[in-house]
């Protein structure tokens, strides 16, 4: 069982001992640290925080603890209750709140939960701010409000509908065109809040919806990470229902995967590629994804006359580079779409609405659309090392070995060859090097990974 404290929040498994797992005491401690940090950043007499949760079983318990901790600090709470990560991100600025907390462990299994922390813009905190909150949590330097200055909780269950309205009002979303196309779509909501909000969005766009695992009870019917090996049921149902395609989201609805009409995975990496292709065809500009994402986004961006850049892994890093480069769309290869026209956060609703509009315009099958893109294949591996081995030294030696190639060291070592690439990153918690490769064939991606792993072992002397 695990408790992981990082600059982006705190996550862990429910139950067990304080400090080793995400217990009620740990939830209160971290919420206290976040609230204390917020108060230190503001001269306002009264602060407000928006809170929402996904449907996991521990959600109501953690939700109550976190809300009432903030009340104890004298902070008002806008309670969205069952919600999604992008919905809370949209709600924070609309409520003119000072921050937000999403209670979700994203794609982790049901025994996990987490506190994801937002600033007043509804965006994830910077590394420096997250580090400060960790310091406050360790010091336990909390100053709670007296009885006359406690915060208040206001319930607002309208924000999933408001979020849908905001998406449907985007200039590049054409509801009438989608209605005319008469799409039929299967939705796997993994029994979380995506099972509520995605069908609602689709129905408002005139789409016939076939629901699969859309009861928000937190009992995930399969591993909630939207990867091929977990999605056999929806792949079969898309074919059985003769649907145009399938939609899969993770429990907090910030990762989006499509199933093509032939029952095959569209590919999480290609969610962003397809949506960016549509956006760039209407509003040319620049794009950003992280270093472990497919080169296909670069190809599509350059086809439309824009420039592409890669950030360090992590949503906050993608957003920072998007702002710097005035990117009009970006995200992560795990199916995370960031469309600044609405907000700077991964948002499956935006991805679905833009993808549907593009399909209606192209008048082609999802399988044919996928086949029209540059074909890249990825291999994701890791190599475990003994604690005594200096991982940084290994990465440095690999960078030196390939110094004549296109090298980036802003996040581990990324080596761009003419036809393929490899990205080496160390784990922050274990003596592990993660090895991501991409090439124009699965055999080539796998072979590159094997070659790099052998070279690392030689350098490490193992």
From TrEMBL:
Pfam families reported in the protein's UniProt record: PGM_PMM_I (PF02878), PGM_PMM_II (PF02879), PGM_PMM_III (PF02880), PGM_PMM_IV (PF00408)
Protein known as:
Phosphoglucosamine mutase
Spell out where the chain crosses the membrane: none
Q: Which UniProt keywords apply?
A: Isomerase, Magnesium, Metal-binding, Phosphoprotein
Cellular component terms per the entry's GO annotation: cytosol
Alphabetical list of SUPFAM superfamilies matching this protein: Phosphoglucomutase, C-terminal domain (SSF55957), Phosphoglucomutase, first 3 domains (SSF53738)
- Provide a GO biological process annotation: peptidoglycan biosynthetic process
> Cofactor(s) for this protein?
Mg(2+)
Q: Which organism is it from?
A: Flavobacterium alkalisoli
């Amino acid at each position: 069982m695990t408790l992981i404290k990082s600059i982006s929040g705190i996550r862990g498994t429910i139950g067990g001992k304080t400090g080793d797992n995400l217990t009620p005491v740990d939830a209160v401690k971290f919420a206290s640290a976040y609230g204390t940090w917020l108060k230190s950043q503001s001269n306002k007499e009264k602060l407000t925080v928006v809170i929402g949760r996904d449907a996991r079983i521990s959600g109501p318990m953690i939700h109550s603890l976190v809300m009432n901790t903030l009340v104890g600090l004298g902070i008002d709470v806008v309670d969205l209750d069952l919600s999604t990560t992008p919905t809370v991100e949209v709600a924070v600025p609309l409520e003119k709140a000072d921050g937000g907390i999403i209670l979700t462990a994203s794609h982790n299994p049901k025994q996990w939960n987490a506190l994801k922390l937002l600033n007043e813009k509804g965006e994830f905190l910077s590394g420096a701010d997250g580090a400060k909150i960790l310091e406050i949590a360790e010091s336990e330097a909390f100053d709670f409000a007296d009885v006359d200055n406690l915060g208040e909780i206001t319930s607002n269950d309208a924000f999933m509908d408001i979020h849908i309205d905001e998406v449907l009002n985007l200039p590049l979303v054409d509801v009438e065109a989608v209605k005319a196309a008469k799409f039929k779509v299967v939705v796997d909501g993994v029994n979380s809040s995506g099972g509520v909000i995605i069908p609602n969005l689709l129905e408002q766009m005139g789409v016939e919806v076939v629901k699969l695992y859309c009861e928000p009870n937190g009992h995930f019917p399969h591993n909630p990470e939207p990867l091929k090996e977990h999605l056999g049921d929806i792949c079969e149902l898309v074919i059985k229902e003769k649907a145009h395609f399938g939609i899969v989201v993770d429990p907090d609805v910030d990762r989006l995967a499509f199933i093509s009409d032939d029952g095959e995975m569209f590919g999480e990496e290609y969610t962003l590629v397809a949506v960016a292709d549509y956006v760039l065809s209407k509003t040319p500009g620049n794009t950003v994804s992280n270093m472990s994402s497919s080169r296909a986004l670069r190809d599509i961006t350059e086809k439309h006359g824009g420039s592409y850049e890669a950030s360090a892994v992590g949503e906050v890093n993608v957003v920072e580079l998007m702002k710097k480069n005035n990117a009009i769309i970006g995200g992560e290869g795990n199916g995370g779409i960031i469309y600044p026209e609405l907000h700077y956060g991964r948002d499956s609703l935006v991805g679905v609405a833009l993808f549907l509009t593009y399909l209606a315009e192209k008048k082609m099958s999802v399988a044919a659309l996928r086949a029209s893109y540059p074909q890249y294949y990825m291999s994701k591996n890791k190599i475990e090392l003994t604690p005594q081995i200096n991982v940084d030294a290994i990465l440095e030696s690999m960078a030196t070995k390939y110094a004549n190639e296109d090298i980036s060291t802003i996040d581990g070592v990324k080596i761009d060859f003419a036809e393929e690439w490899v990205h080496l990153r160390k784990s922050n918690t274990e003596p592990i090097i993660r090895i991501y490769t991409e090439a124009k064939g699965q055999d080539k991606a796998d072979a590159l990974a094997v070659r790099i792993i052998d070279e690392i072992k030689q350098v490490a002397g193992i």
